[in-house]
Amino acid sequence: MTPLMPSSAASRTVTTIAMAVILLGLASLSRVRAETALSVQQPPLAKDMREEIVRIDVTVKDMFQRQETRAMPITIYRPAGEGPFPLVVFNHGRATTDNRAKQGRYRPEHAARYLVAKGFVVLVPTRIGYWETFGDFDPEESGPCNARRLEPMAGAASDQVLATVAFAKTLPYVDTSRWLVMGVSVGGLAAIATVARHPPGLLGGVNFSGGSGGDPVKSPQRPCSAALVANHWRTLAKDAAAPMLWLYWRNDQYWGEEHPKAWHKAWVEGGGDAAFSSFAPVGDDGHSGLSNDMQSWLPVVDGFLAQLGFGQHAIVQAPPASAYADVADTGRVPLSAQSKANGYARFLQAQPPRAFAVGVRGAWGYASGDYAVGKALGYCQRSGQSCKLYAVDDRVVWHPN
User: Fold this and answer.
1) Chain centroid to CA 288: how far?
2) Burial (Cβ within 10 Å: 0-12, 13-18, ≥19) of residue 130
3) Which of these three, 266, 292, 307, is where a domain ends?
4) CB contact at 8 A, 203 and 178
5) Cβ distance 294 to 374 under 8 Å?
6) Structural domain range at position 335
């Protein structure tokens, strides 16, 4: 199956990565050769969201005023139909120097599936200096901890967001007169910097755990130059117009609980419009709340999007129990014996919350823990098949028809 490709344009390099196949819920993995000669194992592409990877040329500067043009990978997720659909540009964070090459292609699959269900096209740039473009040029370098310069870093990150939006203008299925910017960690910083530039068509922004200068190992909850971040965002806010939503978890090992509150206060004092939500601790490090605590942030983001006019239902809810079968009766599960052994048996061994989904042609997906119903359904839908929840926790919810 050949992925759909956007129309070409001068000075733009567009490349596709072959579609991996999901058969009976078992994912095969494709290997791609990075431009830096680094081989990275990739997960299967999500057929239900028409996931594809393209590359566009972007030109950015670093803090030393060195300017380079490099090919930036962008992952595209899109709803069924031809649109045009509103746009979300979703931005990743920043690992340590040793790990930025290993970050791989940024792929916030579960968040993207929610946004696609809301009716958005989601473009996810993997910015210059990460994954296959890691190397001798790092436009997001900001200097040592005690003498950091956030302006070049924020400028370079937001330049790449705007380059992504410019590329989106060439896609006939995207309506760039209605778009949002979102991001996690340094991607949240990129979202804030983009809102501060007041670009045309921007309706709002969502900052998941945004900031800069954290080190959860050497200096947990004590980011370097925290006051500098506050001052920088206070200055940027004067030109911001679009409303924002800022989401943090109280056990964030990068920033701690109090620094994000001070940063938000500075943004609002500077003239920015942002609602702030502080969630209860999750796991060992709340900095991963985007992925590990969807149960908390989904309704808050959903409410924010509804205020902007995007009220389409997208949060997966568990249906009521059916009378089809007992949850332990594996003989009634509408799958092959192999799929039952590989999938449903693992579901039965997992602790609640847990969920299992089945497809119309033999695909399956299961998940346990946070937002199990949505994640299980998503894993099944990767195959491109129509899927329904079969079991949730200790009850069967599936109907044969």
Assistant:
1) 12
2) buried
3) 307
4) yes
5) yes
6) 330-396
319, two tokens: 């249906």
- Residue 100 is predicted with a pLDDT of 80
Helices (H), 124-169: 150-168
- Name the H helices within 185-293: 186-196, 226-236, 258-269, 289-292
Same domain, yes or no: 33 and 181: yes
Domain assignment present for residue 201? The answer is yes
Same domain, 386 and 299: no
Do the domain assignments include residue 35?
Answer: yes
Whether 293 and 340 map to the same domain: the answer is no
Co-location of 59 and 205 in the same domain: yes
Percentage of the chain modeled with pLDDT above 70: 89
Contact at 8 Å (CB) between 148 and 228? Answer: yes
The answer to whether the CB of 295 falls within 8 A of the CB of 370 is yes
DSSP strand pairing (244-249 vs 174-184):
unpaired
* C-alpha span between 255 and 210 (Å, rounded): 9
* pLDDT tier for residue 96 given thresholds of 50, 70 and 90: confident
Sort residue 170 into left (φ over 0), alpha (ψ -120 to 50) or beta.
alpha
DSSP code per residue over 282-321:
-SS-GGGHHHH-HHHHHHHHHHHHHHTT-----S--PPPP
Residue type, 161: V
pTM: 0.88
56-66: pLDDT as tens digits? 999 999 999 99
CA pair distance 20, 234, nearest whole angstrom: 46
Pairwise CA distance, residues 171 & 104, whole Å: 25
Q: Which amino acid is present at 7? A: S
Q: Which of 274, 307, 340 is where one domain is finished?
A: 307
Q: Looking at the structure, do residues 339 and 198 belong to the same domain, yes or no?
A: no
The predicted-structure confidence for 379-396, as pLDDT tens digits, reads as follows 999 999 999 999 999 999
Do both 171 and 254 map to the same domain?
A: yes
State how many domains the chain has: 2
In whole angstroms, give the CA distance from residue 205 to residue 399: 40
